[in-house]
Amino acid sequence: MVRLITHNLLACHAKGCTTNNFPLVFKDVQLEIRESEMNPEFLRNFYPKLEWDALVKTAEQLGDTSLPKTQPPIESVDEEFLKALHHVLLEIHVEEGAMTCPNCEHRYGIVSGIPNMLLAEHEVA
Amino acid sequence: MSRPELVAPPEIYYGDSEAKKYTSNSRNQQIQSQMTHRALELLNLPPDQPAFLLDIGCGSGLSGEILDEEGYEWVGVDIAPSMLEVALEREVEGDLFLQDIGQGFGFRPGVFDGAISISVIQWLLNAESSHPTSSPPHRLTRFFTTLHSALRSPSRAVLQFYPSSDDQIELITSIAQKAGFGGGVVVDYPNSKKARKVFLCLFVGGGGGAQSRELPKGLDGEGIEESEAAARFEKRRERERKRDKSGKRKAVKGGKDWILKKKELYRQRGKEDVPRDSKFTGRKRRITF
């Protein structure tokens, strides 16, 4: 159940890992598409909070290229675009696999949709 | 009061059987749902905007279910895998993370519109090992600083917890303040042993809402609606107090029933001058000067 919306918020939180720790990179993933109801108001609200580059890059890795490379300004966003955004953000679920930090290469495993964010004692800041 | 946090660390205490028990207990469900609604009330989110919330210690998703009902998008974190498994079975809508909140969050700054936590942070008050990073103050500091940065400004975090002493409340609030939070503790039903609930109501920035910076008042069970809410817990206590050892109900001394019983007894014993029973029996006299 890791959706790209949460992946877009997630940075590595291991000790000393403060730069270049976002976005986490997906490895060996199994995807599942689960349709859900679209909430345009929520998407518009959330829109400014997105890290667009990271989102597009990750979506490409997962095989979805429906989003443009640069983030269109919020005023010019139409229904069609919101649908694509909704699909990428909220309907693609990563079920199995792992996320690795681009900086310290810590591996966060994903089992049945739940990522294991636990750190070992020496990694705790 | 039983204190599970003194028994074992949460990920062990909430094993498979305990997680199932916890989730299927209807009384537990009711209390959790009441507290979640109250926490949402204290969050004071703008009513017409869909918000993105963090559920700290989401467990089996009892509180998450209510967030779903209310139409919020949410992310839940918990340390007990068995609880999360139950949450998966129950098909809650939010994303779930296996995470130790005492190790801090890795969320980007300012992404959440609010955070709630139901009956969780008392678990942070016990040290599991002697490693410096597992001392309660260190874990609390890490928790509050990373939480503070993950919340947008202005917003609120409402954390309900069960402190076992005032010192614990003080420790927690002082660390939260050091992490940059405003706000403080809201106590509902402070005079009841059972219904008493402690909410840590923390503000980031102005705290959001119209009456920003002003701490909401705790319920005291004096309003009509509120006393009904409290009655669920209070009535039983009253009843238990009245009951004598044999389990039968005993009339309260000085009450009408008690007076009638005594008078009946005196008549049976043949005592003279026992006043007759009337509608005024056992009534209070008007106050006159």
TrEMBL record, chain A:
<dbReference type="GO" id="GO:0030488">
    <property type="term" value="P:tRNA methylation"/>
</dbReference>
<dbReference type="Pfam" id="PF03966">
    <property type="entry name" value="Trm112p"/>
</dbReference>
<dbReference type="GO" id="GO:0046982">
    <property type="term" value="F:protein heterodimerization activity"/>
</dbReference>
<dbReference type="InterPro" id="IPR039127">
    <property type="entry name" value="Trm112"/>
</dbReference>
<dbReference type="GO" id="GO:0070476">
    <property type="term" value="P:rRNA (guanine-N7)-methylation"/>
</dbReference>
<comment type="subunit">
    <text>Interacts with TRM9.</text>
</comment>
<comment type="similarity">
    <text>Belongs to the TRM112 family.</text>
</comment>
<dbReference type="InterPro" id="IPR005651">
    <property type="entry name" value="Trm112-like"/>
</dbReference>
<protein>
    <recommendedName>
        <fullName>Trm112p-domain-containing protein</fullName>
    </recommendedName>
</protein>
TrEMBL record, chain B:
<keyword id="KW-0963">Cytoplasm</keyword>
<dbReference type="GO" id="GO:0005737">
    <property type="term" value="C:cytoplasm"/>
</dbReference>
<dbReference type="GO" id="GO:0016435">
    <property type="term" value="F:rRNA (guanine) methyltransferase activity"/>
</dbReference>
<dbReference type="InterPro" id="IPR022238">
    <property type="entry name" value="Bud23_C"/>
</dbReference>
<comment type="similarity">
    <text>Belongs to the class I-like SAM-binding methyltransferase superfamily. BUD23/WBSCR22 family.</text>
</comment>
<feature type="region of interest" description="Disordered">
    <location>
        <begin position="226"/>
        <end position="255"/>
    </location>
</feature>
<protein>
    <submittedName>
        <fullName>Williams-Beuren syndrome critical region protein 22</fullName>
    </submittedName>
</protein>
<feature type="compositionally biased region" description="Basic and acidic residues">
    <location>
        <begin position="229"/>
        <end position="243"/>
    </location>
</feature>
<keyword id="KW-0539">Nucleus</keyword>
<keyword id="KW-0489">Methyltransferase</keyword>
<dbReference type="Pfam" id="PF08241">
    <property type="entry name" value="Methyltransf_11"/>
</dbReference>
<dbReference type="InterPro" id="IPR029063">
    <property type="entry name" value="SAM-dependent_MTases_sf"/>
</dbReference>
<feature type="domain" description="18S rRNA (guanine(1575)-N(7))-methyltransferase Bud23 C-terminal">
    <location>
        <begin position="202"/>
        <end position="286"/>
    </location>
</feature>
<dbReference type="GO" id="GO:0070476">
    <property type="term" value="P:rRNA (guanine-N7)-methylation"/>
</dbReference>
<keyword id="KW-0808">Transferase</keyword>
<feature type="region of interest" description="Disordered">
    <location>
        <begin position="268"/>
        <end position="289"/>
    </location>
</feature>
<keyword id="KW-0949">S-adenosyl-L-methionine</keyword>
<dbReference type="InterPro" id="IPR013216">
    <property type="entry name" value="Methyltransf_11"/>
</dbReference>
<dbReference type="Pfam" id="PF12589">
    <property type="entry name" value="WBS_methylT"/>
</dbReference>
<feature type="compositionally biased region" description="Basic residues">
    <location>
        <begin position="244"/>
        <end position="253"/>
    </location>
</feature>
<dbReference type="InterPro" id="IPR039769">
    <property type="entry name" value="Bud23-like"/>
</dbReference>
<dbReference type="GO" id="GO:0005730">
    <property type="term" value="C:nucleolus"/>
</dbReference>
